[in-house]
Amino acid sequence: MTLDQKIDAAGELIGRVFADSVAPACVTCSFQTECMALVDLVIAQKPDIPVLFLETGYHFAETYAYRDQMTERLHLNLVNLASRQTVAEQESQFGILNQTAPDRCCGMRKVEPLFRGLDDYGVWFTALRREQSPTRANLQTVDNFRLPTGKQLLKVSPLADWTNADVWSYLKRRGLPVLPLYEQGYTSIGCAPCTTPPADPDNPRSGRWAGRKLECGIHIASD
Ligand code: SF4
Fold it and tell me: Looking at domain 3-185, what is its CATH homologous superfamily?
């Protein structure tokens, strides 16, 4: 499939979901390249859709600056999802969990705030792509996702079959800038303490958690 065909297919899927569902929709966004492509496609059809950002408190300064720049430029309805504890409170109670127990840290600063935030919605657009990781190889474009509360959401991944090259070509075509950290060799960008340039150039996510884990727990918690 050409990029034009993939763009058309993604746009048609997004339109179909909006037409078929009366449930409120949101899109999650980490402000990485694929997220910006997805957000651009989704806001073309629903400009005021809530754009959920996991405000872990541990992001790079560049990520916060880029988030604010793109929010202003695209007039995003940004919703920051924060943990129940500040970074200072968590570190004073538990120490530096991203060094000692990253799963627990991700649980407190990503998974719990996201699931709490998602409870307000019935449709969840994600920028997941099958190519990103072995854990995403079987990603369905449209899937059901059950929150711990039992609430069921429609999880929609319009870029599931997009390659990294597709994403970059799309952003270039649309004239959208990318997070400046990519210029420094980063290929997958999350919290600063857990992100380095990739150790394996063939595995863009190998710079996350120093290869100790592949996911923060959000996208493997579905049925
Ligand atoms: S990515 Fe690292 S700093 Fe961020 S929530 Fe997970 S363990 Fe904590």
Answer: HUPs (3.40.50.620)
